[in-house]
Amino acid sequence: MDIDPILNGLNAAQRTAVTSPTSVLQVLAPPGSGKTKTLTARVAYLLSSKHHGFRPQDVICCTFTIKASREMRERLSHLIGDQVVSKLVLGTFHSICRRYLVAYGHLIGLKKGFGIADSNDSLTIIKRIIKRLNLNIQPNPARSRISSQKAQGICWQDLDNARHSKNVEQQEFVQVYREYEAALASSNLLDYDDLLLRCVDLLRKHPQCVSNVQAVLVDEFQDTNAIQYELMNLFAAQNRRITIVGDPDQSIYGFRSAETKNLERMQRRYPNTSVVLLENNYRSSGSILRSAQQVIEQDAARPVKKLHPTHGIGTMPVLRKLPTAAAEAQWMVAEIRRCITLTGQLLKPSDFAILLRSAALSRQIESELGKQGVPYRMVGGSRFFDRVEIRLLLDYLRVISHPENNDALARIINVPTRKIGDETLKNLTVGAESAKLSLWSFIKDVVQGRRSCQKSLSRPANIGLSTLVGLIEAARQKLHDCVDESSPRTLLEFVISKLGFREYLTATYPLDEENRWANVEEFLAQAGDSSASYSQQDDVLPEIEGLEQHQGHIGEEALSRFLANVALSTEVTTEQGDQPQEKVTISTIHAAKGLEWPVVFVAAVYEGIIPHSRAEDSDEERRLLYVAMTRAQALLYLSLPRRDSKNGEETRPSSFLPPSIAETKFRAVGPKFVDKTIFGIADILGREHPSQEAIITGLQSGLPSLNDDLWTHNDEYTGDKAMRWDGSQVLSSLDGRGQA
Ligand code: ATP
Ligand code: MG
């Protein structure tokens, strides 16, 4: 019997899951056991005409990040073809919800053309409210608290009603929450939480919007929060056909209200749920797996689970202590370069990831990578889009797309300068508020002489305002004339030229103009690349009889989709011009979920960072280290500085580290490295062994100086000896092994 290509390369347990006839299925399994692979195959199976034959537009598949959905789209394309995949409703919960709201938001009274407030916008709004009302609470915690209330479905009215105590802090919070909601509404903005909440509202009131849906699939289910869980149920309301995959040991979003309880909740709600367990690990070497296991097993409350390595033991994880954080960064980058050279190019920059507890730790590493000329990209940290010059251009685009965005308009009103000072802006804002108009409508009226401000405007301010209004109106006309998907780039070019943006940068940042302009060029490239943003197909929902979908203007929709994608993405390309496959990844551990790399560095593994000194849940901190370690396929490096760079105090290695790796000395250099490590790496990655010539060339080119310290730390070879290697020694060592 021919094996179905969909089932090719899957083990028995994975096949059972893919072909399971039950409609509600949970696949629970440890990292690297092929959950995502299995989920992907199940999507293909559901669509296959030989099996269920569902229409792709009737299947919803939720991934945790935009990157993960792109990867899944790619994998599926191989299995079932681009055509079919492009119709699938595949994305993050946020992007899928946005899609439903664009199409059907009018049914719940959402104004069309809403914008998305990203976390920066939210913070700005909250800061402004706190300042205006002269309150004592801190903006950042207030924002997280609002978000966590929303994630639990608690609105400010609920809190207001429940306000038994006269606790001042609580009262202030409710005030901020209320004003925040009002500010979003007046700018026709939805924040991340609103995208989910409003979609829940939509689907509860108008379940026919998802009446076509045949199946719902969710990856990384352990990190769904209450609202996402509810959405999943609503999506699946018609046919109750759900597949989820997850691993409670990798739940690391409790701080954002994720609830592992959802697993049991789901089993209670759907009594016919079947559970499939996967036990083989295909990702990591045996020794990496064993160390990771030792970390997670410290959690005594956790049920014992089986996990079998499918690869050999490989190279032991390395723990290194460096004098300072700067030295740690230097060592990591040198080590990356050395690995690339020593393995005869078996490894390339994109095979390496540096994982951090928080993005704030990345600065030194970024600068060291820059210094040593290693290209990198940063994921989940301070984003490319948050750079001042990019942010400004984005604000222009946002106002053009959506002029009611009061905050964005306020930010661009006097940048570049138009003689509209803070007082004038305040004057205009007050005017708009009392006229119950958006800032934009009010300004337009003022410019056209239909209204006036309380205090009349100076002549220069008046001129400045009309210039701005003229620019935005011209841009909106241009947008309207744009009847294809090129609008993001067209508008961006328009703004840049009308503002004389390059000259503005030169005048404002004389020392840094070149860098900033390079960023602008990168941004232009991204705006022109419709595949980088998600394409039009991502926005189409199937037609449903009796339900009218909002059909927008194609150019306007393309711009708004581009902006939504920017708001919802965490990924950044920092260097330009290079092939994306040639970059080292720096990522927060949180953003690295579900991904894998041949070589992983986990930096700053010390008490206070992992576990974090402010963390409330130490089990979650342990799982975080577990997630980080289990990203590695062939080599795992853990490191810490001897002194904390903030307070200069001596550090203690993370108490989560098992004794087995706390003691490791540096290995993996010398002919032994060549012999075992390189071939071992190639085997785990399923790559061809590098040629002897390549290895010899690598060894001869050396990369010495920085690594003197490393060479001498080797068990078997002194630094001296190591430096004296030559090709013949390597060759004899290879010969001795009798060729793999
Ligand atoms: P995580 O919990 O980290 O998200 P996961 O369980 O989703 O991990 P996958 O990412 O699906 O795991 O798979 C991990 C690696 O193992 C991938 O490189 C995948 O291609 C490979 N893999 C999965 N199943 C098999 C198999 N049956 N045979 C060979 N390789 C496999
Ligand atoms: Mg996965």
Could you characterize what this model shows?
The chain is 49% helix and 10% strand. The protein has 740 residues and is an alpha/beta fold. The protein has four domains: 5-111 and 196-278, 3-Layer(aba) Sandwich (Rossmann fold), CATH 3.40.50.300; 119-185, Orthogonal Bundle (Arc Repressor Mutant, subunit A), CATH 1.10.10; 308-382 and 580-700, P-loop containing nucleotide triphosphate hydrolases (Rossmann fold); 384-568, PCRA, domain 4 (Orthogonal Bundle). Helix 11 (226-235) links the parallel strand 6 (215-218) and strand 7. Helix 1 packs across helix 2 (35-47) and helix 13 packs antiparallel against helix 25. The longest helix is centred in the middle third of the chain and has 23 residues, at 459-481. The chain is globular, with a radius of gyration of 28 Å. The structure holds adenosine-5'-triphosphate and magnesium ion. Adenosine-5'-triphosphate is lined by residues 9-11, 14, 29, 31-37, 247, 250, 282-283, 594, 596. It comes from Talaromyces stipitatus (strain ATCC 10500 / CBS 375.48 / QM 6759 / NRRL 1006) (Penicillium stipitatum). One of its GO terms (biological process) is recombinational repair. This is DNA 3'-5' helicase.
